[in-house]
Design a protein that fits this description.
The structure holds three protein chains of three kinds. Chain A has one domain: 3-Layer(aba) Sandwich (Rossmann fold). In chain A, about 30% of the residues lie in helices and about 30% in strands. Chain A has six helices and eleven strands. The radius of gyration of chain A is 17 Å and the shape is globular. The two termini of chain A are about 20 Å apart. Chain B starts with a helix and ends with a strand. Chain B contains eleven helices and eleven strands. Chain B folds into three domains: about 35 residues, no CATH class; about 120 residues, D-Maltodextrin-Binding Protein, domain 2; about 100 residues, 3-Layer(aba) Sandwich (D-Maltodextrin-Binding Protein, domain 2). Chain C is mainly α. Chain C is globular, with a radius of gyration of 20 Å. Classes of the chains: A alpha/beta, B alpha/beta, C mainly alpha. Chains in contact: A-C, B-C. At the A-C interface, strand 7 of A face helix 6 and helix 7 of C.
């Protein structure tokens, strides 16, 4: 469960969110500029809000009043970017294992064979990201984040760079992650269709403010 | 009122006339200066730097409109430059080899070629050094100091060539040659000894006299090397101003300056 | 095929070039990364100072090296006293002269390559549990590699041609400091030395050509290793 109460200001943009996300998949719907990527960056620890606190499963990740700030590499929140952000100098296999190798063996919930099987990455393993298609990159990015055994998976418009056909191909994988890996997700998008298909609960973000909507 | 206006017009005319005349005057004098100003390009061995600078300055005082442009370097460097077309008017070398080199190549005015000065070769050390040198083949020069010996490049620069001859004549060459730093002119070698980068150097007596940071440890006898002679000449393209300066260098006043710096006169 | 002095000059040039490259490697990476990523007090002054050897006539740094690292210099005396290292009149000084003159080239190449790195890749790595040091070692450094390689090549090439600072600081001594440019200089000053000068020039040209060819191949290899699409392109 994620408790989020933050206030973030940069230049003319102001983000203010106070909510609790405890559904298996929480959707966040918003147009570009609404602050959804910023919100995810704050949850992951890549940005620091001026005020606020964040609790994940009872663990304090941020508390500006008590000067608590857990750096991103210690939060165990996986973040899947819009364009994958695969490390270009590593093979697909080593990309997948990048986060996996940063956690102690006893905390590794999944093994590479399972993830590769689920995301159908077998033929791609020895290739380099530069030779992959958009859809393939996103699947690898997803697999990489899962193998990190995150406490929370943050997805920043993971399908927006893909065409309809690919979207339809990959959407089911998220459901698989929910049902088979049981990792809670925060899924950010501007597509109501994806929200409808994937999420149990969803919120709407507009100009930095949250409007709660339920399904 | 009319008078004032009239004066103003006159004033304007006057200023205009003045302006036109000033410009003309400046242009005219520039043209004149090109016509009368002479440039003498003097290429001389580095050891002559101070003597020729002084002579050049005093000549310029008595001959306004003539500029003596001096280029001091190792005689080898200068000879090569002149051979390749450098526009020298006067060349003075620190040894006969380089003088003959240019003479053979026909770039010098042979009638003006003559031996001008002589010098002596000395062994120097930084002023704080306590080295003691005996000019005797039995003396082990190599063992008497640490580090390197600075002199001109022994293959090409006159002072280096003389140095090699002297070292050979005392039987010191074999032991010392790996420790020699050959510079492109004698003043660089002198500077290294002044900085105590080299504990020993071989330069001309006239150079040693000029420096307060080095002392003479020994004077090589003339028999140990070829005579240190400075031949000089006008080049084939030397103009009137160059010839005039060359004549000036033959005067007793000029000779006195050379003598004061420690050179011997051969002319 | 090569005479003794020619071989000496060639191997000395290679030796000095390789050592100068080595000396510039770590400080070059450090400074390049620092200038690309960090802001600090007096950064413009620091950057200006660092790039000075690029705009000064080489005899100036050569002379300054003589004053500070020579046997009467502050640093020179300290090094001699504590480590028995001397620089003047030997190849170590030639290495130092080349390294100082070429250092800005290394820094510039590294700085540019760091500036081109997509920071989101580094962010992605940190969200996958990599500490800042680990991110630097596993993401930043590999992505800097082409820039580092180019920097090293520039240092080596520049040191092949280094003359002014070398001759001012360490003199022109066969077998110790007489690299190819100095050897050519000496040859052109000797009576009858023109033939040797031409041979040395041909050697220099060949050496430079093959060095650049090799570096080009290495650069391409590195780019390929990083993937066809580099971050940001």
């Amino acid at each position: 469960m994620l408790e989020l109460d933050i206030y973030f200001k940069r230049d003319d943009f102001c983000l203010q969110i106070n909510t609790i996300m405890d559904a298996p998949i929480t959707g966040v719907l918003g147009a570009s500029g609404s602050g959804k990527s910023t919100m995810l960056a704050i949850i992951a620890g890549l940005l620091k809000p001026q005020q606020g606190h964040i609790l994940l499963d009872g663990v304090s990740l941020l508390n500006t009043a008590d000067k608590v700030f857990v750096p991103p590499h210690e939060r165990r929140t996986g973040l899947v970017f819009q364009d994958g952000q695969l490390l270009p100098h590593l093979s697909v296999r080593n990309n997948l294992l990048y986060g996996y190798r940063n956690i102690p063996p006893q905390e590794r919930r999944f093994n590479i064979e399972t993830v590769v099987g689920l995301l159908e990455l077998e033929p791609l393993l020895e290739r380099k990201p530069g030779s992959l298609s958009g859809g393939e990159k996103q699947r690898v990015a997803l697999g990489r984040a899962v193998l990190y055994s995150p406490r929370l998976l943050l997805l920043d418009e993971p399908l927006s760079a893909l065409d309809e056909r690919l979207k339809n191909q990959i959407l089911p994988f998220f459901l698989r992650i929910k049902s088979e890996f049981k990792i809670p997700m925060v899924y950010v998008t501007h597509s109501p269709r994806e929200i409808e298909f994937l999420t149990d609960r969803w919120l709407s973000l507009a100009k930095g403010k949250l409007v709660l909507q339920d399904d | 009122m009319q008078v004032l206006i009239g004066l103003r017009h006159y004033g304007a005319d006057f200023v205009r006339a003045l302006r036109i005349n000033s410009v003309t005057f400046i242009l005219f004098s520039l043209l004149c200066s090109f016509a009368t100003a002479g440039e003498v390009k003097l290429y001389a061995a580095a050891s002559l730097t101070d003597a020729l600078t002084e002579l050049g300055a005093s000549y310029q005082k008595t001959h306004p409109g003539v500029v003596i442009k001096k280029s001091f370097a190792g005689s080898s460097t200068l000879a090569k430059q002149i051979e390749n077309g450098a526009p020298a008017d006067i060349f003075i070398s620190a040894d006969n080899d380089w003088g003959n080199y240019l003479l053979k190549r026909g770039v010098l005015a042979a009638e003006s070629y003559k031996k001008l000065l002589g010098n002596e070769l000395v062994l120097i050390a930084p002023v704080a050094s306590d080295i003691k040198v005996e000019l005797d083949p039995a003396f082990n020069l190599a063992a008497s100091f640490n580090g390197r010996l600075c002199t001109g490049d022994t293959a090409s620069v006159p002072v280096g060539k003389y140095a090699k001859q002297s070292l050979v004549s005392y039987g010191w060459w074999e032991a010392i040659s790996p420790r020699i730093v050959g510079t492109e002119d004698v003043r660089t070698a002198l500077a290294f000894v002044e900085r105590a980068e080299c504990n020993v150097g071989i330069v001309y007596k006239t150079d040693a006299y000029l420096s307060k940071k080095v002392k003479i440890a020994a004077i090589f006898p003339a028999a140990s090397h070829s005579p240190v002679e400075y031949p000089g000449a006008l080049t084939k393209n030397a103009g009137q101003d160059a010839k005039a300066f060359w004549d000036f260098l033959q005067t007793d006043d000029a000779k006195a300056v050379f003598t004061r710096y420690g050179f011997t006169l051969l002319y | 095929m090569l005479t003794e002095p020619e071989w000496q000059a060639l191997s000395l040039s290679a030796h000095v070039g390789l050592w100068a490259t080595l000396v510039c490697l770590l400080p070059g990476i450090g400074c390049g990364w620092l200038l690309a990523r960090k802001q600090f007090f007096a950064k413009p002054a620091f950057e200006a100072l660092l790039f000075m050897p690029m705009v000064l006539p080489p005899t100036v740094p050569g002379y300054l090296l003589l004053v500070t690292f020579g046997s009467q210099g502050v640093i020179g005396q300290w090094l001699k006293h504590n480590f028995n290292i001397e620089f003047v009149f030997n190849w170590k000084g030639a290495v130092l002269a080349s390294a100082i003159i070429a250092f800005p080239l290394m820094v510039q190449a590294v700085k540019l390559s760091v500036q081109m790195i997509d920071r989101r890749l580094e962010q992605a790595a940190s969200t996958l549990g990599a500490s800042p040091l680990k991110v630097w070692l596993t993401v930043t450094l590999p992505l800097m590699l082409p820039g580092i390689l180019i920097g090293l090549i520039m240092v080596f090439s520049r040191s092949l041609g280094e003359f002014g600072a070398t001759i001012t600081f360490v003199g022109n001594i066969a077998g110790e400091t007489r690299t190819l440019p100095l050897a050519i200089y000496s040859a052109t000053h000797q009576i009858g030395g023109d033939a040797m000068a031409i041979r040395l020039i041909i050697i220099s040209l060949a050496f430079a050509f093959f060095a650049l060819l090799l570096s080009n191949l290495l650069s391409r290899r590195a780019e390929k290793w990083l993937g066809v699409h580099r971050a940001g392109t």
